[in-house]
Backbone:
């Protein structure tokens, strides 16, 4: 089966959402604001009147680049409901790239922040060029009402304020299934722009698949604070929520020092599904001591891991520590969002795999295109209604990955005899860092434009938290005074923050093979040596701590986990605590201070204190 | 218990509606302001004393000229000083206490402030400001009857607060059950009915009467306190804050160590974290640490020789148990199941009676009376 | 109480029984409330 048996289309969905049943229901909740379905319905109908004034017709492309989240969501859905094609352009996009995208995409209009029009003056030329000025949340409304003051007059030349004077228009009854719903540009070099086109049929059939797999209803409350200019942020967030009239909660952007607050939001907002990227899970695992009960609420169902490879050790450790199931989703921007799902049901759940395809057909083939037997590795091919229509105005790139309706994912997979797929590697030259795809060539291209750079190469190295990190190696011109800092600053001018290399190494030359191609393995080795020289530890702290704990608490080492605390180990009472500390002191040949002993409330805690203690000597 | 009833009434009628009807960010601060207002009316001294100690315990940590160690020492000292002044028998001898009284909830917030100072010194507290700290201390439901809840827990819950009908009705139920414990079991059964029985037994069975009166005192203390803890927990739930449980069927504990993990949990865990563990780490003497913790636990109730002895007896009990307990790693399979059940039951009985007996020293007003009762009990 | 009863009887019966149980407790509490209470020292805290 390559498609769900039935699904709602845009016309039916938005008609349904406008019925009184959903009038007061929440659509999106942020820390300070709430958008109801009634507000959404009103907005898309007023926008319809506006689009009518500009004479836009089904399938016209409109560039959207707005920093404000609420406006981004409402604008995207307005375009969707009116059959217009949204081109989502991250407001973080650098000017040169934005210009090339505009040139290539030939949109009929632009809805963007004022800054965008300043930086890309060409955008003003479109007949519909709307400058966005987000509506300020009305502060102190209560007091204003008490004082009898009326709301201040609003500027009616900016969007969305100019909608106020319009009367509601009518939505199209029927939008052709093959009309493109939205376009997302994936990372890539300027010579090879890839604007993924997703049709209405592709989007809405996939929304049906997602809501079936996740078991969404109008009672569901999704926590998704991923970036809205990526498919996992906008599609598996507000759009998926709208499909089932569920609630999408976006409390605030993810930050390390707000992890506790984010976890508290699970309870506060009665979250049922938490959509996250593995990097977030890794950071939570590392920095959220004391929040182990966060997912033990009566509402919460499971975590949905998207965007990048979920490492098996993290998956296991996280599920165990927080007592929660993590559903691992495999998909690409080219398949809307998902495709293969490990979980939530037991028959499709296996840690370390991407589970099984849902409403898609998968094949694994070798270089010659022949299907390989189970247990052998090959490229993963996918076919389904949710596969993209093709890259916008880029025939060669489209035919490279889309052949006879089969999408070549560029990922290497193995299927087990009982039908589980495991991703084992990658054919395409792309790295995924913290859930964001980066084409190393895009970075290399920029670095090479620097006047003092002879040549450069960029690639990913594996990282515990981010999955992968981008590394660049540069050969400077002789006599130039390039530094890592200067190069980073240079990158910042032309690249989005997320694409800046985490380290730039300067070399006199790059090792090359006979053909003149840069030998990546050799460079990797060089970099690894440079990288490792900073962190060297010969003592196996984990083992020492485990052994001391095992003897003090009378528990076999095999039963101990780093996350164990005095609450999870029966023998860990106050007396045994001292025994544990003394054994550890003996093993390490040092003595802990009172304050240090007092904060050793878990095994991993004890380990990190021991580490600090030895390194500080 | 007059103040208590006022607190309960004011919490339900005044605090609870404000905690939900005002705009989100005003809710908890209003609860604190109303708490302060209530204290000002009920007992101005209490309000001033809490505000002063709270400001000092927070403000001392902002003094750049002090080293961290000095900050924590000074912060704890000022809290303890105020506590000792009001709780020791000394001001009573000076004739103070009769005129000013003890500030409301002094013992509870003193220990909260010490906890705060130590955790702040250890740098384990989440990022917060003075208002957050005041919200924690000026929280009427737990002001007078505890539990000695911890700042990080309170702060986390204030961040997680949400309207929850189930939690609210649980809160109402807890208050009702709390009152049922106090009035029906505590007042009616234990205080009145049992007193009547003891009175009739007294002439013919004096030792049985003494025994029952011993049991009555300890169980009544537990029932009343557990009842009021239920009320405090219930009131907090009405405002949307979940405070930790204070009792977990302590009389079913099979040894004294376990008993103190289940009786007045917030106090005993406080003593474990802020007396026992530091003493143990400092001196490496488990006996000293245990005794120290239990003495503080006793003195927390009242700064008097009786509570000192009572605390020492608790410490002694725990130490005796530690001396004779089975090593935790040893297999317990050698004996048949009934054997361990009997041993467990025996343990429960012994623990219960030991606790009741130690309470004799706080029940009687002087040592002579204690001796008298003991003779009556054991030498018929 | 309601959740407990609901496991054994229908939700309607459970609701009625719970209401009766609360009323009974309330009545008893008010009835006995005015009895003299024990000399209890926790009041000083």
Residues:
């Amino acid at each position: 089966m390559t498609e769900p048996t039935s699904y709602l289309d845009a016309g039916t969905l938005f008609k349904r959402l406008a019925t009184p049943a959903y009038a007061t229901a929440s659509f999106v909740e942020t820390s300070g604001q709430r958008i109801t379905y009634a507000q959404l319905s009103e907005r898309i109908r007023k926008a319809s009147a506006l689009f009518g004034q500009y004479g836009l017709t089904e399938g016209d492309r409109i560039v959207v680049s707005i920093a404000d989240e609420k406006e981004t969501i409402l604008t995207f859905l307005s375009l969707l409901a009116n059959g217009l094609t949204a081109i989502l352009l991250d407001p973080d996009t650098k000017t040169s790239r934005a210009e090339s995208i505009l040139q290539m995409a030939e949109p009929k209009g632009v809805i963007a922040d004022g800054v965008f029009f300043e930086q890309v003056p060409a955008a003003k030329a479109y007949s519909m060029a709307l400058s966005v000025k987000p509506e300020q949340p009305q502060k102190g409304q209560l007091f204003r009402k008490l004082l009898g003051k009326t709301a201040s007059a609003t500027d009616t030349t900016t969007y969305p304020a100019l909608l106020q004077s319009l009367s509601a228009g009518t939505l199209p009854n029927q939008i052709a299934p093959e009309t493109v719903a939205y376009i997302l540009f994936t990372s890539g070099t300027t010579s090879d722009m890839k604007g993924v086109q997703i049709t209405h049929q592709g989007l809405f059939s996939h929304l049906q698949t997602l809501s079936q797999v996740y078991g969404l209803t109008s009672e569901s409350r999704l926590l998704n604070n991923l970036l809205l200019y990526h498919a996992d942020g906008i599609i598996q967030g507000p759009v998926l929520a709208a499909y089932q009239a569920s609630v999408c909660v976006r409390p605030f952007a993810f930050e390390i020092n707000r992890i506790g607050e984010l976890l508290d939001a699970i309870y506060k907002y009665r979250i049922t599904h938490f959509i996250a990227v593995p990097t977030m899970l890794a950071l939570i695992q590392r920095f959220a001591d004391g929040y182990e009960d966060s997912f033990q609420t009566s509402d919460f169902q499971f975590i949905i891991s998207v965007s990048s490879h979920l490492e098996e050790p993290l998956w296991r450790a996280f599920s165990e520590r927080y007592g929660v199931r993590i559903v691992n989703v495999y998909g690409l921007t080219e398949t809307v969002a998902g495709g293969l799902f490990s979980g939530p049901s037991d028959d499709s759940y296996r840690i370390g795999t991407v589970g099984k395809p849902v409403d898609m057909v998968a094949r694994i083939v070798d270089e010659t295109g022949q299907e390989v037997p189970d247990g052998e590795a090959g490229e993963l091919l996918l076919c389904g209604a949710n596969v993209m229509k093709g890259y916008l105005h880029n025939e060669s790139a489209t035919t490279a990955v889309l052949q006879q309706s089969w999408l070549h994912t560029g990922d290497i997979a193995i299927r087990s005899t009982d039908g589980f797929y495991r991703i084992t590697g990658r054919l395409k030259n792309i790295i995924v860092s913290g859930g964001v795809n980066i084409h190393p060539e895009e970075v290399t291209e920029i670095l090479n434009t620097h006047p003092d750079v002879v040549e450069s190469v960029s690639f990913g190295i594996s990282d515990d938290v981010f999955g992968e990190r981008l590394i660049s190696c540069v050969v400077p011109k002789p006599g130039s005074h390039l530094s890592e800092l200067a190069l980073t600053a240079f990158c910042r001018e032309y690249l989005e923050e997320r694409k800046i290399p985490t380290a730039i190494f300067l070399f006199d030359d790059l090792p090359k093979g006979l053909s003149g191609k840069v030998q990546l393995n050799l460079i990797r080795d060089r970099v690894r040596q440079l990288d490792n020289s900073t962190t060297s530890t010969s003592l196996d702290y984990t083992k020492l701590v485990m052994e001391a704990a095992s003897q003090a608490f009378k528990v076999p080492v095999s039963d101990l986990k780093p996350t164990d605390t005095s609450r999870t180990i029966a023998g860990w009472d106050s007396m045994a605590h001292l025994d544990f500390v003394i054994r550890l002191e003996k093993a390490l040949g040092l003595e802990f201070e009172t304050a240090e002993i007092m904060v050793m409330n878990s095994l991993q805690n004890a380990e990190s204190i021991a580490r600090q203690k030895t390194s500080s000597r | 218990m007059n103040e208590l009833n006022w607190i309960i009434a004011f919490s339900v009628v005044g605090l609870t509606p404000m905690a939900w009807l005002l705009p989100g960010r005003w809710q908890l601060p209003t609860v604190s302001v109303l708490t302060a207002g209530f204290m000002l009316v009920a007992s101005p001294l209490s309000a001033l004393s809490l505000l002063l100690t709270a400001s000092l315990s927070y403000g001392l940590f902002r003094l750049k000229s002090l080293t961290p160690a000095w900050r924590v020492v000074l912060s704890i000292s000022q809290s303890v000083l105020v506590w000792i002044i009001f709780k020791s028998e000394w001001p009573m001898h000076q004739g103070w206490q009769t005129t000013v009284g003890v500030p409301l909830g002094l013992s509870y917030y003193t220990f909260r402030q010490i906890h705060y100072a130590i955790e702040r010194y250890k740098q384990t507290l989440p990022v917060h400001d003075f208002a957050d700290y005041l919200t924690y201390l000026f929280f009427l439901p737990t002001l007078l009857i505890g539990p000695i809840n911890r700042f990080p827990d309170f702060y986390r819950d204030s961040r997680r607060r949400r309207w929850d009908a189930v939690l609210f009705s649980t809160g109402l139920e807890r208050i009702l059950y709390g009152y049922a414990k106090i009035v029906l079991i505590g007042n009616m059964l234990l205080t009145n009915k049992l007193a009547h029985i003891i009175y009739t037994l007294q002439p013919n069975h004096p030792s049985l009467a003494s025994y029952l009166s011993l049991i009555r005192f300890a169980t009544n203390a537990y029932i009343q306190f557990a009842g009021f803890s239920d009320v405090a927990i219930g009131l907090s739930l009405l405002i949307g804050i979940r405070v930790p449980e204070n009792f977990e069927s302590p009389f079913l504990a099979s040894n004294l160590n376990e008993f103190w993990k289940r009786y007045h949990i917030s106090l005993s865990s406080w003593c474990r974290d802020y007396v026992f563990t530091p003493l143990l780490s400092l001196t490496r003497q488990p006996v000293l640490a245990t005794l120290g913790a239990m003495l503080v636990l006793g003195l927390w109730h009242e700064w008097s020789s009786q509570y000192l002895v009572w605390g020492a007896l608790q410490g002694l009990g725990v130490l005796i148990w530690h001396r004779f307990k089975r090593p935790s790693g040893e297999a317990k399979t050698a004996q048949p199941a009934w054997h361990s059940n009997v041993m467990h039951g025996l343990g429960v009985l012994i623990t219960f009676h030991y606790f009741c007996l130690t309470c004799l020293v706080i029940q009687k007003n002087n040592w002579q009376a204690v001796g008298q009762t003991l003779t009556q009990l054991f030498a018929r | 109480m309601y959740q407990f009863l609901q496991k054994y009887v229908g939700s309607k019966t459970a609701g009625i029984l719970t209401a009766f149980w609360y009323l009974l407790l309330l009545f008893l509490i008010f009835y006995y409330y005015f009895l003299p209470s024990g000399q209890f020292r926790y009041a000083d805290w």
